[in-house]
Amino acid sequence: FDLCRAVLQFFSFHFFSPFSVTMFVLFFLTTIAVVHSYKVDHVSLLKDENAKTCNTEQYRNSDALENENVIVMRRGCSINIGVALTAETDAEKKAKLDVSIFDFNAVLQASSDESLSLNKYLSWHSTGDLSGNLALTIPSDGYVGKFLANLEVGDTHILTGLALFVIFNPYNKDCDEFVEDAVSLSEHVENEHGLVWVGSSDYNSARIWHYEHFEVSNLDVAMSALRKLELQYRNDLVLVSRQITYGIGNDICWGRWSGSYTDCKYCHEASFWTNTTE
């Protein structure tokens, strides 16, 4: 808006003369040059703050992945990425940065041939003259999965190759997967330990099983099971559940109802494992 006012004021004084047009072009090019001469000095993922906001504090050991820049967020939630810029000229150092004239860009790469632009879900919140938070919001009906996120301000890359896990949100009443009952939420979402029943209908017993679904490495495997589901269907809770179930049976686990369980290199008795990570 400041730039628009300056342009209107400029032309109101010069009445579109050849001189005024020439001066405006120089003015405009100078303004753009000043905008793009700011450099990114520091970027912070604000992991603790974002985890608390999105109810993902229980997810752990993200350093187990090769990419150290990892954020787990839920749809229907916003995350902040702290950005500090450096002014290169004395004039810039004295002036307050107007980030509203920047173009924000966020591209989520779901696969080699599928990507998602989230530019309309980006916003800037200043925390100082040359610093602020870039907020990224995933809508309540957004797509889930593992994405490689590239964030830009203007022509400047802020963050490249951020591993962004977007998962369902049982805590947000605007999401289809919202779980209102606190007991059900605790039992079916937050509980990390349960029982696996083995045997027949007449003779059965239970074994303890550690779900360990808050291990980021396990989340990574679960998201890889979605690789055959097109991005346009990844906002549907039912289709995502069916695809993960199919992926587990087709790509991860093989079982049999009778015969030997140990006649191949990676075959074991069912009781060999006690948790998901194994």
Structure commentary:
It is a single chain. This protein has 7 helices and 11 strands. With 278 residues, it is of the alpha+beta class. The strands form 3 sheets. The chain has a 5-stranded mixed beta sheet with strand order 2-9-8-4-5. The termini are far apart.
Salient structural properties:
278 residues, alpha+beta, five-stranded mixed sheet, four-stranded antiparallel sheet, 11 strands, elongated
Topology (elements, then pairings):
Elements: H1 2-14, H2 18-36, E1 39-44, H3 47-53, E2 70-74, E3 77-86, H4 90-94, E4 104-111, E5 114-117, E6 122-128, E7 131-138, E8 145-153, E9 156-167, H5 182-190, E10 193-199, E11 204-210, H6 216-224, H7 237-252
Parallel strand pairs: 2-9
Antiparallel strand pairs: 1-3, 3-7, 4-5, 4-8, 6-7, 8-9, 10-11
Helix pairs in contact: 1-2
In a few lines, what is going on in this structure?
The chain has 278 residues and is α+β, with helices and mostly antiparallel strands. The protein is built from seven helices and eleven strands. A hairpin with a 2-residue loop joins strand 6 and strand 7 (131-138).
